[in-house]
């Protein structure tokens, strides 16, 4: 079943796609794309898969693991806090960077394996220097609609 992506997911995936058009280092995934890891399937609101973590077999791209996982916490009860924590911890355990986007607070917590959490507020920017050198997205743009952002350009 196709699910409608959250507006924050659309903004983040747009910026990642724009970067990857200039720097073809991997692929962006959305909510209906599954990661198959150790026989179990997982999903994220947005993900980034590095080219080095895929195997292209004709029309099928086998994903070994995501390098970035974005989870958007809406506060609507879609998932419990424990479920979000479990997803975060699982993705960290496989080496992924996790962005937890908190819609109500308008902040993004950045988790990296074996590092302290970084809390990014509306005036900060998100970067992925180890994965995507030169990529930068303003946190305020995560929470603005893509239509609004494009109309301002």
Give the gist of this structure.
Helix content is 26%, strand content 33%.
Give an overview in words.
The chain has four helices and twelve strands. The chain is globular. It has helices at residues 7-22, 81-93, 139-142, 146-152, and strands at 26-30, 35-37, 40-42, 46-50, 54-57, 60-63, 68-73, 97-102, 107-111, 118-120, 125-127, 136-138. Helix content is 26%, strand content 33%. It is an alpha+beta fold and 153 residues long. The chain has one domain: Alpha-Beta Complex (tt1808, chain A). The strands form four sheets. A six-stranded mixed beta sheet has the order 1-4-7-8-9-10, sandwiched between helices.
Features:
153 residues, alpha+beta, tt1808, chain A, two-stranded antiparallel ribbon, 4 helices, 26% helix, globular
Number of strands: 12
- As laid out across the biggest beta sheet, the strand order is 1-4-7-8-9-10
What value does the Rg take, in angstroms?
15 Å
Count, helices: 4
Average pLDDT level: 86
- The N- and C-terminal alpha carbons lie at a distance of 34 Å
**CATH topology descriptor:** tt1808, chain A
- Sheet with the most strands, sense and barrel status: 6 strands, mixed
N-to-C order of helices and strands: HEEEEEEEHEEEEEHH
Give the secondary structure arrangement, pairings included.
Blueprint: H1 7-22, E1 26-30, E2 35-37, E3 40-42, E4 46-50, E5 54-57, E6 60-63, E7 68-73, H2 81-93, E8 97-102, E9 107-111, E10 118-120, E11 125-127, E12 136-138, H3 139-142, H4 146-152
Parallel strand pairs: 7-8
Antiparallel strand pairs: 1-4, 2-3, 4-7, 5-6, 8-9, 9-10, 11-12
């Amino acid at each position: 079943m196709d699910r409608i992506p959250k507006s924050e997911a659309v903004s983040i995936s747009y910026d990642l796609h724009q970067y990857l058009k200039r720097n073809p280092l991997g692929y962006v995934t959305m909510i209906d794309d599954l990661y198959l890891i150790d026989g179990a399937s997982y999903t994220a609101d947005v993900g980034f898969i590095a080219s080095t973590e895929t195997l292209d077999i004709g029309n099928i791209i086998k994903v070994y693991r995501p390098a970035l996982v974005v989870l958007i916490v809406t506060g609507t009860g879609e998932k419990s806090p424990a479920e979000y924590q479990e997803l975060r911890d699982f993705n960290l355990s496989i080496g992924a960077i996790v962005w937890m986007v908190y819609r109500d607070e308008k902040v993004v917590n950045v988790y990296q394996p074996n590092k302290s959490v970084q809390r990014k507020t509306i005036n900060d920017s998100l970067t992925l220097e180890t994965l995507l050198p030169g990529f930068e997205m303003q946190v305020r743009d995560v929470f603005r609609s893509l239509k609004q952002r494009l109309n301002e350009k």
